[in-house]
Write a structure and sequence with these properties.
Layout: H1 5-12, E1 19-24, H2 29-40, E2 44-50, H3 52-59, E3 68-72, H4 76-88, E4 94-96, H5 102-110, E5 123-130, E6 133-140, H6 150-167, E7 173-177, H7 188-199, E8 207-212, H8 214-218, H9 220-226, E9 238-240, H10 244-258, E10 261-267, E11 273-274, H11 282-299
Parallel strand pairs: 1-2, 1-4, 2-3, 4-11, 6-9, 7-8, 7-9
Antiparallel strand pairs: 5-6, 5-10, 10-11
Helix pairs in contact: 1-11, 2-11, 4-5, 6-7
Length: 300
């Protein structure tokens, strides 16, 4: 059996150039597991912002490592601002959400004066690998963009394509998901896909197709049975959902029912922003950190 995408990713990380992650209110079990594992593996340094006593209690001996710095800031908004400042001024390389609300860290990232926004849109990317189908795939957007119009959806696609090409040196196949393949006024997602396709008809750096159902994007047998004749034949690399509720449901299905290997981050800032859910497994949290480290090393 071939080695999983995330296992390969960890082996490819350059341990000679350790990445430093900045975490606001780092006294969070999810962060502690991922950071301690990363430091013990020799691939990570960390700037932990929050209550020093709580951090030392949670991180144990790792908190005394020369690779760890602790900054005593206990207010959520101030901690997020400081974490972003650490990245912006070059003392840290990537950002990871600690025990803070997503909205608070996003405000710090997107602040027009002190933030680190790079691309026109900040979007969430879920990297996943199915147990019986080797190879990484990306789902977007399951956490950020609520109900995108065609222009916003195109920006989501651009972020996903850029991130995909950091790991796979080829043009991706992009599936615009809907309930079926026919354009219908009664199914808004089909009209949305139609609008996006009109904007990418001349692109050579990716294949974009839709509307199409999830099974046709993922499963060659469904393509054969339904006699689907599109360019994407069950081999999509990027799965684009029309709304956040669809993306969230698909994310949870991959997580709980399929048991896919997963990792997630926000993309479009000057650095990767590692964003995990409280319900994510420890492996998902660590995989998310691996993604952030890898993207930083690839683009620095």
């Amino acid at each position: 059996m071939s080695e999983s995408f995330f296992a390969q990713l960890e082996k490819k990380i350059d341990t000679k150039t350790k990445c430093r992650v900045s975490i606001p209110l780092a006294n969070d079990e999810a962060c502690a597991y991922a950071v301690c594992r990363g430091i013990n593996s020799g691939i990570l340094k960390a700037t932990l912002i929050g209550n020093p006593e709580k951090i030392r209690l949670m991180y144990g001996e790792i908190s005394d490592s020369p690779d760890v710095s602790i900054i005593d800031i206990r207010d959520e908004q101030s901690a997020c601002a400081k974490a972003v400042e650490e990245v912006k001024e070059g003392r840290s390389n990537i950002l990871m959400k600690g025990l803070v609300s997503t909205s608070t860290i996003l405000k710090a990232v997107l602040n027009s004066q002190t933030g680190i926004k790079k691309n026109p849109l900040l979007s969430h990317l879920c990297f996943f690998e199915l147990p019986d189908k080797p190879g990484v795939k990306i789902l977007t957007d399951a956490a950020m963009c609520i109900s995108p119009d065609a222009e916003t959806l195109l920006m989501e696609i651009e972020n996903a394509r850029e991130a995909f090409c950091a790991f796979e040196k080829r043009s991706p196949n992009v599936a615009l998901l809907s309930a079926n393949e026919k354009i219908s006024d009664k199914i808004p997602s089909t009209k949305l896909a139609e609008a996006v396709l009109s904007m990418v008809s001349t692109r050579k750096d990716m294949v974009v197709e839709g509307p199409m159902s999830f099974d046709l994007a993922l499963n060659e047998e469904s393509v054969r049975i339904k006699k689907y004749k599109g360019k994407i034949q069950g081999n999509a690399d990027i799965f684009v959902v029309p709304r956040i509720d669809t993306g969230n449901a698909l994310y949870k299905s991959l997580q709980y029912y399929v048991k896919a290997s997963m990792g997630g981050m926000l993309y479009g800032a000057r650095c990767p922003v590692v964003l995990t859910s409280r319900a994510d497994s420890n492996d998902t949290k660590y995989n998310s950190l691996l993604l952030g480290i890898s993207v930083w090393q690839d683009t620095r």
